[in-house]
Amino acid sequence: MRRAARSLFGRRARLRWVHLILGGALAMPYVLVGSVIIGPATGGTDVFGSFPLQLASFGVGLPLAAVTSLFPLTRPLEAAAVRWLCGVDTDRLAFGPARTRGEKGRTAGWFTLHLGLGGIIAGMSLAVPPFAVVLIVLPVVAGLRGGRLGLPEVLDHAWALALAPVAGAAMLVALAGCAAGGGWLLARWAPALLGPSPEGRLAAAEARAADLAVRNRLARELHDSIGHALSAIGLQASAARRVLDSDPEFVREALAAIEDTTRRTVGELDAVLGVLREGDAPGTAPAPTLAADLDGLLRRTRAGGQRVTATVDTDLEVLPALLSREGYRIVQEGLSNALRHAGDRVAVDVRIAVASGALEITVENPVTGPAAVTAPVSSRPGGGHGLRGIADRVRLLGGTMTAGPAAGSSGRAAGSSGPAGESWRLHVRLPMKGPA
């Protein structure tokens, strides 16, 4: 019983009733225009004094409403009203103007349905409650009997007076039921008529996917750039502190490298944040590439005392711009991982070559302890996304990646102090032509 009462008189039912009455109010101008047409056409002088002529005017006005629904703001306004008053989820509605023929047709159908049902329910809401109240109070108000107010004389009988309050209450419940049913019908049809088309859903999904891809790429750029910079700065500062009194020249070089690293990272950070700030122009700092800054990357890494050897068996200038940029980030993250996990006392070997139509990048360093490098990056305290970020880049470029212990490596960096044949190797292979 309580559930039935809530469905007829609950908050949602009342809001949907208001939505229907708004539809009736919107229908009134069209009914007036229809009456101007119906009056001369039928010869009637009092259109609103005749119920059939009122219905005819209503029927003429609805097609006019369908035509005016092509106004661009109709769908956004109707969708907003449906969201607030009918309780339809936002993601099931389209709030932009109808552009295609199908969207315009569905909007016209919705507007006609809203005004049609709204006009009926609004008319009932005006006519039924006064009559129902009269029936309810008829047994106790003798002045309403005897044909007064145009009531039929049959209501003066004793049995009619006894049933009149029941009939009045039933009319009010029936009115609420009609309003609840009409509101439910509109809420049910709103997603189909005011919702996005399959093409619109696909376009929205593609836009969201593109936005997510951009944000993920920017997150990787920030992680790789700032993560490497902080690791390098920490290593350079630590090395400078250890030899502060004994080797002032090395300290000056380390401080210069920290300054250079900081300046470049701030420029890259500004460029990335410029993309994230809506309405701001992107930063002007160019994205680093292998061709433009590999030597600088190695120089800044070595400035902290890290022993890095690099072998480049290809002309970096002829690499595609995308491969050169992503390859730079992969080398940068490989060096960062070595700095974090192997320390500044271990040599790192970087090899870059083109073989069989693919760019191959290898970053390798000897293992100096049982868990110094073999633990994956994501398992270190505080988490981490280094290898995951590299894997995402490689996957998007259609390449392959392996990372882990490499026993018996013949390409270990010179001067390693770990056990013979034990090293940690990151190997990436990127096709020169791929899905990127």
UniProtKB/TrEMBL annotation:
Under CDD domains, the record lists: HATPase_UhpB-NarQ-NarX-like
Q: Which domain of life is it from?
A: Bacteria
Q: Which reaction does it catalyse?
A: ATP + protein L-histidine = ADP + protein N-phospho-L-histidine
User: Which residue intervals define the domain Signal transduction histidine kinase subgroup 3 dimerisation and phosphoacceptor in the entry?
Assistant: 215-280
Q: Which GO terms describe its molecular function?
A: ATP binding; phosphorelay sensor kinase activity; protein dimerization activity
Q: What is this protein called?
A: histidine kinase
According to the UniProt entry, which residue ranges have a biased composition of type Low complexity? 403-421
Transmembrane parts of this sequence: 20-41, 53-73, 111-138, 158-187
Lineage start:
Bacteria, Bacillati, Actinomycetota, Actinomycetes, Kitasatosporales
Q: Pfam families under this entry?
A: HATPase_c (PF02518), HisKA_3 (PF07730)
InterPro entries, per this entry? HATPase_C_sf (IPR036890), HATPase_dom (IPR003594), Sensor_HK_TwoCompSys (IPR050482), Sig_transdc_His_kin_sub3_dim/P (IPR011712)
Q: Name one GO cellular component term.
A: membrane
Question: Which Enzyme Commission numbers does its entry carry?
Answer: 2.7.13.3
Query: Which SUPFAM superfamilies does the record cross-reference, listed alphabetically?
Result: ATPase domain of HSP90 chaperone/DNA topoisomerase II/histidine kinase
In this chain the Histidine kinase/HSP90-like ATPase domain maps to 328-417
| Keywords per UniProt | ATP-binding, Kinase, Membrane, Nucleotide-binding, Phosphoprotein, Transferase, Transmembrane, Transmembrane helix, Two-component regulatory system
Renumbered residue ranges of the record's region Disordered? 401-436
